[in-house]
Design goal:
heterodimer; A: 2 helices; B: 295 residues; mainly alpha; three-stranded antiparallel β-sheet; 9 helices
Chain lengths: 156, 295
């Protein structure tokens, strides 16, 4: 157990091992560690961001829902109003149509009446002429008395 | 277990002798066959077992960590990577706590010291006769050596050469960084101008030898205490394992008792193994921190 050159050998080993550890092992391990650290930090940040995004999305969804409800109500009321308008219009049209039909019928009735009256007038004139001729027992010149007969007919 | 014909003291001495390679006094190179022969070789001899194990364990550490570091993924780490990263973060936190200057060599140095010394110390937990026994068999049958002369200490930290090798390297770092950070003048002032200070220039000059003595002792005590603390703890632990192992050849009752004792001591020794590696690392970092700062 005496001191000898083993000491020098041990020092050289130490130096070599230290150099190797210093130049190769330590930096590699440290870079791996710090890289993982950043990755974990990034992951946590991403998680936090995702949570915030979800919250925002939830809020947006709520807003959209409320907006949609409002719109639906508006559309409904618009539709109701439109329906009322349409029915009013239909009523007015129906009334106009009815009046038109009524007036058409009246004119037709009047025309029919006039036509009947004219026919009647002719027949009355002929009847009056034949009555008068029978009364006078002679041929009455229809031509000479046409004016008279027409006057008679208009008075009917 | 004391192999055939060995007395207890021979057994213990055999276990405490390194396998020393050097030049015999008669001029030829070879392994020392006894403690006396190893001593006669003087300084220029090497303990082959110490260097073999310290290199093997250091290389194991580097290979293991390098393999993990090379394929270290930034995703979810697996078991081995987890363990290595845990160790690295533990060391990094420790170094950040006790080293305040800026030097990116210190943290890897702490990692190297901690894991390497830990692995070295853990060799103490291998039953004391296994590897030396294997070495004796290999020595006898492969190299044709006398098995009684095949010494094999498997725990490099029970060899003061290994611990001094480490602590003197750290001492060299301390001197280097002291001079680099404070300048030669600053470092000299640190050694001579405190702890006794005076405003009178003559008194100040008179204080220089006193200060130099005090500071010199405290400076030199660092590497000495660093290495002797590690060596002493592990040597004592090793010694107790050897003494317990003596019981294995003294009848069945003592064999069982020795087995229980060895287990109990090994459990306790795990604490020492870890603690000493940690203390060595922390003190090295602290000494380097002191070297970086003015006092």
């Amino acid at each position: 157990m005496n001191l000898n050159a083993t000491m020098i050998g041990q020092s050289i080993f130490f130096g070599v091992f230290l150099w190797f550890c210093w130049k190769f092992i330590w930096p590699m391990l440290m870079s791996a560690l710090s890289e993982r650290e950043t990755r974990i930090a990034d992951g946590l940040a991403a998680g936090e961001k995702g949570r915030r995004d979800l919250e925002l999305a939830d809020k947006r969804v709520g807003e959209m829902l409320r907006e949609a409800k409002g719109k639906a109500a508006e559309i409904l009321s618009q539709a109701e109003r439109r329906a009322g308008e349409i029915s009013d219009e239909a009523k007015a049209q129906a009334r106009v149509e009815a009046e038109r039909i009524l007036s058409g019928a009246q004119t037709e009735i009047e025309q029919e009446m006039n036509r009947a009256r004219d026919a009647l007038r002719g027949q009355v004139a002929a009847l009056a002429v034949s009555g008068a001729s029978q009364l006078l027992e002679r041929e009455v010149d229809a031509g000479a008395h046409a004016e008279l007969l027409d006057q008679l007919a208009t008075r009917l | 277990m004391a192999s055939g014909g060995q007395s207890s003291s021979e057994y213990i001495k055999h276990h405490l002798q390194n396998l020393t390679l050097g030049q015999h006094p008669d001029g030829h190179w070879g392994f020392a066959h006894s403690a006396a022969e190893a001593k006669a070789m003087g300084f220029w001899a090497i303990n082959v077992d110490t260097l073999l194990w310290s290199f093997t364990l250091g290389a194991l550490f580097l290979w293991w960590f390098y393999r993990i570091a090379k394929k270290a993924s930034t995703g979810v780490p697996g078991g081995g990577q987890n363990f290595v990263e845990m160790l690295v973060e533990f060391i990094d936190t420790n170094v950040r706590g006790s080293f305040t200057a800026k030097n990116d060599m210190v943290a890897p140095m702490a990692l190297t010291l901690f894991v390497w010394i830990l692995l070295i110390n853990m060799m103490d937990l291998v039953p004391v006769d296994w590897l030396p026994g294997l070495a004796a068999i290999v020595g006898e049958h492969v190299f044709g050596a006398d098995p009684h002369h095949v010494f094999f200490k498997v725990v490099p930290s029970t060899d003061p050469n290994a611990t001094f090798g480490l602590s003197l390297t750290i001492f060299a770092f301390v001197l280097y960084y002291s001079i680099k950070m404070k300048g030669a003048g600053g470092f000299a002032a640190e050694l001579t101008m405190q702890p006794f200070q005076a405003n009178n220039p003559i008194v100040r000059v008179l204080f220089i030898p006193v200060n130099l003595f005090l500071e010199g002792v405290s400076l030199l005590a660092k590497p000495v205490s660093l290495s002797l603390r590690l060596f002493g703890n592990l040597y004592a632990g090793e010694m107790i394992f050897i003494l317990i192992a003596l019981m294995f050849s003294a009848g069945w009752g003592l064999f069982v008792f020795g087995g229980v004792l060895q287990w109990a001591w090994a459990v306790f020794h795990v604490l020492i193994v870890l603690l000493q590696a940690f203390i060595f690392m922390t003190l090295s970092v602290v000494y380097l921190d002191m070297a970086h700062h003015e006092h």
